[in-house]
């Protein structure tokens, strides 16, 4: 046991002597967590710039513009009476939409000629375009209903009759699970999970590859220890560090007031399994590729698209089957699927059993493969030393 602790002291020294490793492992989760937290802190998109081309310049068109100005998601950046070079201005000014009220609009309304309002959306940013479209429709549909009801009242109908004639039925939307549509609560958990996986990948990619490069592995081989002993030795410092890092990540949820149930047993199990699965894959690459740069580069290739492939933001049903198959080998895919069930739906361990099973499979496969490959390298080095 004393030998193990002596070697463990050396491992700690080697970890802290690597400034890149320390910066990645200890700095990245906090830095990226705070950065992304502040990016999405506003929680929803507001003040999207739009332009109103008011070719009618009537009391009704003025009322429509006032209604747009009252909508918090939209900002009437400019009101003009002719389009001008609006298509050339849109990329420069980043207008989300251009609303054109045609000439004779109010007169056509009064004469029941059903004029058309044209809305040109800037689809370069789909998120902004969708939000702008939704809010523009909301404003115009509300005004349209008001005009129709007022017209019926002028024809002699009572207010109740006018509303009943215009609205054949009502629709009541009840928003569940993130009812406020808070974008921070939606994005930050997924990003933090992907960041932690990537940080663990990159840190573990260095544990054996560095030893192969600087010759320290040969001194370990001379201790006559089996592969499982070296794996435990290399993993122990990170098993001590990771609870601290996850604690720091959990504080970000509190700091940014993210509404998610993360302090419970199912979530603890998920965090442990994600950590072990990420460590297993990272260490496996470190054993297979005896070069620190190449090992980290290859793991970056895996971890960079992991968040997108996980199905957290883009539905997995819309992803081709063969790509979905690839994503199943990435731990964060299963972690985020289970995270949503626990944090937002209030699920328990039985609800996330499929994800737990997949994470366990990844852990077993990666550690068994690492155990065998590392033992082969140990045997090869012993043979070289004896010769």
From TrEMBL:
Q: Which residues form the ABC transmembrane type-2 domain?
A: 153-377
Question: Has UniProt tagged this entry with the keyword Membrane?
Answer: yes
Main location as per UniProt: membrane
Which regions form coiled coils? Answer: none
Annotated compartments:
Cell membrane
Q: Which UniProt keywords apply?
A: Cell membrane, Membrane, Transmembrane, Transmembrane helix, Transport
User: What's the superkingdom here?
Assistant: Bacteria
Q: Where are the transmembrane segments?
A: 20-40, 183-208, 228-249, 261-286, 356-374
Q: Does the keyword Glycoprotein apply?
A: no
- Could you tell me the membrane topology recorded for this protein? Multi-pass membrane protein
Q: Report the family membership.
A: Belongs to the ABC-2 integral membrane protein family.
What this protein is called in its record is Transport permease protein
Please tell me the species this chain comes from. Salegentibacter maritimus
């Amino acid at each position: 046991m004393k030998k193990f602790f002596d070697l463990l002291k050396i491992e700690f020294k080697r970890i802290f002597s690597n400034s890149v490793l320390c910066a990645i492992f200890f700095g990245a989760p906090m830095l990226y967590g705070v950065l992304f937290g502040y990016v999405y802190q506003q929680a929803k998109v507001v003040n999207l710039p739009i332009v109103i081309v008011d070719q009618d310049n009537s009391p009704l068109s003025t009322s429509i513009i006032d209604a747009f100005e009252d909508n918090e998601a939209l900002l009437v950046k400019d009101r003009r009476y002719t389009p001008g070079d609006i298509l050339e201005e849109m990329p420069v000014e980043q207008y989300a939409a251009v609303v054109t009220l045609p000439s004779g609009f109010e007169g056509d309304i009064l004469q029941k000629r059903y004029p058309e309002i044209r809305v040109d959306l800037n689809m370069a940013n789909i998120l902004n375009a969708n939000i702008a479209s939704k809010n523009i429709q909301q404003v115009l549909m509300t005004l349209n209903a008001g005009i129709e009801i007022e017209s019926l009242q002028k024809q002699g109908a009572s207010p109740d009759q006018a509303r009943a004639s215009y609205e054949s039925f009502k629709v009541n939307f009840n928003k569940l699970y993130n009812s406020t549509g808070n974008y921070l609560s939606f994005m930050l958990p997924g990003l933090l999970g992907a960041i932690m996986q990537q940080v663990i990948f990159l840190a573990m990619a260095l544990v054996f590859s560095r030893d192969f490069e600087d010759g320290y592995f040969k001194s370990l081989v001379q201790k006559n220890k089996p592969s499982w002993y070296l794996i435990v030795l290399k993993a122990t410092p990170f098993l001590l560090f990771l609870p601290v890092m996850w604690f720091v990540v959990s504080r970000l949820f509190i700091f940014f007031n993210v509404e998610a149930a993360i302090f419970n047993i199912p979530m603890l199990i998920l965090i442990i399994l994600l950590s072990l699965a990420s460590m297993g894959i990272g260490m496996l690459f470190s054993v297979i590729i005896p070069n620190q740069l190449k090992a980290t580069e290859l793991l970056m290739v895996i971890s960079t698209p992991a968040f997108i492939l996980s199905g957290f933001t883009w539905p997995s049903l819309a992803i081709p089957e063969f790509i979905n198959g690839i994503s199943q080998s990435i731990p964060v895919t299963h972690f985020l699927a289970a995270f949503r069930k626990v944090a937002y739906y209030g699920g328990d361990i039985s609800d996330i059993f499929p994800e737990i099973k997949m994470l366990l499979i990844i852990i077993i496969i990666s550690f068994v493969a690492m155990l065998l490959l590392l033992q082969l390298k140990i045997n090869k080095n012993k043979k070289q030393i004896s010769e």
